[in-house]
Amino acid sequence: MLALDPKKLGGLVMGPEWIAIIALVALFVVGTLLPINMGALAYVAAWLVGMYSLGLDEKEILAGISADLVLTLIGVTYLFAIARQNGTVDLIVRTAVSSVGGRVALIPWVMFAVTAVITAIGAASPAACAIIGPIALGFAGRYGISPLMMGMFVVHGAQAGGFSPISIYGTITNSVMEDAGLGASHLTIFFSSLVVNTVMAAILFVVLGGRKLMSLRMDAEGELVQVGGGTAAVAGGSSRPDRSDARSATGATPTTGTPNADDAGTTLEHALTLLAFLAVAVVALVFDKNIGFAAITAAVVLSILTPKAYKDTVKQIAWPTVLLVAGVSTYATILTTAGSPEFVGKWAAGLGAAAIGALILCYVGGIVSAFASSTALLPVIIPIAIPLVAGGGISAGLFVAALAVSSTIVDVSPFSTNGALMLANRPDSIEETTYYKQILGYAVIVTLVGPLLVWAALVLPGW
Q1: Phi, psi (rounded to 5 degrees) for 218
Q2: Segment 436-444 mean pLDDT
Q3: Banded model confidence at residue 229, pLDDT cuts 50, 70, 90
Q4: Is 161's pLDDT higher than 90?
Q5: Is the pTM of this model over 0.85?
Q6: How far is CA 450 from CA 81, 99, 200, 389, 459, in A?
Q7: DSSP track, 230-282
Q8: What's the CA gap between 98 and 262, in Å, rounded?
């Protein structure tokens, strides 16, 4: 097929790199304003730009999809779906809450840690927030904990674990790095996100009254008491929590350490599921085998052991996420073919200092992701880093870590899925308008300051 040549048209037609960039902006805008999967939009954009701007045939366009990445997403979310269905996720929540011994100040940190674990073992960030958010905000309403602190703890927890080597974000980021010739930096990216989000949670804890919670305890009856005697008043005027507000998405009540009667016969399943996650981590990290093959093998083995229980679990695979990533990664290849990453990267590098270009890209990632999908953004923005890394003076692993963290910490925004989930599950103790303004205010601060601080910590020192 004949590609359009701007040189033959007197320069009246823009080059393919600009066409690809404009199409990218268009699909992000449409995908943000309309309830259409951005992956489907990306496939359309890849087809049109690939055929009519780059002169590619359809086989060449489809060759851009990463089979390794798609398999990893399917395998990891399949295994997590089994863990959610058989109650292993609820077991983790109950065990974590009971482990704090009634210390109210530790409940936000438990929610942070549990959400981090859930995303680290393969849950999509919105899925983890949907599971833990109602539980966490139920505790907030009943025990006088700041709803803003509790909701943001859940979101930051999801991002803290979100870049583990076997997580969705982690597999996307490292796969894109390897495809771009930057090599993989599994632990660098994971620990960067873990530390940044933990620090942000700690700041929230101090600013939003966490220290006052240290003197509060839950007694054996579930009443809130002050250390040293007395019963503490909580939001709503009642000292006894309503446990109906603290239920998970699967119906389990996590406020006690006693398993539900329905879970009594699934102890072996819980043990096998936890063992399966451990085996996947060992096979992938220690023996350097493909995470997708390892995860889907573990899911199939569990399904064989209990075929009737998991016969419909395959329907719970995160297919919208698979479509999103498959489509966007295909379009990312179109961008690369058009020369768009080199175009933007060289422009950023031409600003006089690679570090300044890196800062600009961190802000681009943060601002776009506050309104659009972080999962869709990562395969697009990482290749843009190549010219800056090639120029020397910047660590590929730390730069990509800065881009990844800057593009995901802004998911606290009420315009993102995670932030919207926290808003939707607000406790009755706070008005929706007030809570919305609180989340929005915090999101603005994070979007304006977060990328700068992440860049200053990871890129500027030139580690």
Answers
A1: -100, 130
A2: 91
A3: low
A4: yes
A5: no
A6: 32, 32, 9, 22, 13
A7: -B---TTS-SS--GGGS--TTS--TTSSSPPGGGGGGHHHHHHHHHHHHHHHH
A8: 19
| Residues comprising the chain, all counted | 463
In sequence order, what are the residues at sequence separation of 6 or more whose Cβ sits closer than 8 angstroms to the Cβ of residue 336? Answer: 383
Both structure tokens of 193: 């996100």
DSSP state of 229: S
Query: How many angstroms separate the first and last alpha carbons of the chain?
Result: 47
Q: Which two tokens stand for residue 351?
A: 């600003």
Residue 224: strand pairing partners:
218
Structure-block tokens of residue 170 = 């982690």
Dist. CA 427–CA 138, nearest whole Å: 6
Dump the DSSP string for 22-33: HHHHHHHHHHHH
Q: DSSP per residue over 345-385, as a string?
A: HHHHHTTS-HHHHHHHHHHHHHHHHHHS-HHHHHHHHGGGG
Matching residue, tokens 């304003």 = 33
Residue 319 structure tokens: 């297919």
In whole angstroms, give the CA distance from residue 126 to residue 322. 14
- Residue located via tokens 């451990």: 278
Residues pairing with 218 in the sheet = 224
**Residue 369 tokens, joined:** 């992701």
